[in-house]
Amino acid sequence: MFLRAVLSERSLRNLATKNEKLAKNDRVHKIKWIQYSGRIYEKTKITLQ
Length: 49
What we know:
This protein is mainly alpha-helical. It has 1 helix and no strands. The model has no long low-confidence stretch (mean pLDDT 73).
């Protein structure tokens, strides 16, 4: 249990630093993702109808 807790804490820290790095590029990625998913949504909407 202790080892698992240490590992999870370390992985959480790694995630936090990754998230900090990602947060800088997050706005751009979000915009790109919204555009991308929007295109997919439009395609699926057309195919579903």
